[in-house]
Amino acid sequence: FYVAYIAHSLTSCLTGKPSAPRDLDVSEVGADFVTLKWSAPKSDGGKAINAYSIEKRDMTRMIWVHVTDVKPGLRDYTLKKLLEGRNYQFRISATNEEGEGPFAQSDIISCEKPPEKPDIPSGSLQPCHVTESSVTMDWLPPYYDGGSRLLYYILEIKESDSDKWLEVTRTLDTSCLIRGLFEGMEYDFRVSAVNAIGASRPLPTEKPVIPTRQSGIIKDS
């Protein structure tokens, strides 16, 4: 009897609820979803983990809501149907035969569409003033900056019978004077908008630009 009692007591001391999952991370955020990743608890409590429990909290309500239980072999889960622009917090616990362990909790996360490259500059890329050795090119900003402020525009030039584009300038202006051109030669231009994510598709001129002494001011027809 005493041997059995001691064995039971030792087993009880060595088993218990698991510790909190480790390394909880919100690895991906979208306008209406997040993906959680985590590692197994440091201690399983001496019993095999049989599930992870995931909860969420909308910071406008401050109430924890059970989302789902996932199998013990999983270490990631994507929560969908969240509301764009809302702030959320997430937590996860491990469960074994002894019960549910403590939660690991995430930082507050805002569900927003991630930034992307800007749209192509709008309107048309065209010369507003031409001389025998220079042109002034004008364009308009993109309709959408990709959710990240524009850093600059890249204006490029090439001779019309060439495939080699050369960068003219990087500027936040929507107009640029290009000097040192040859009278009568045909040139193509293109402009791209750039934000922190990258460059937009380039907007090209619709027809070659020819430096000409008589051109002067070009007006829209």
TrEMBL record:
InterPro entries membership = FN3_dom, FN3_sf, Ig-like_fold
Q: Which Gene3D superfamilies match?
A: Immunoglobulins
> Cell cycle: is it a keyword of this entry?
no
Q: Which GO terms describe its cellular component?
A: sarcomere
The alphabetical list of record keywords is: Immunoglobulin domain
Q: Which residues form the Fibronectin type-III domain?
A: 20-114, 121-215
Q: Does the keyword Protein biosynthesis apply?
A: no
Which Pfam families does the entry link to? Answer: fn3 (PF00041)
Q: What is this protein called?
A: Fibronectin type-III domain-containing protein
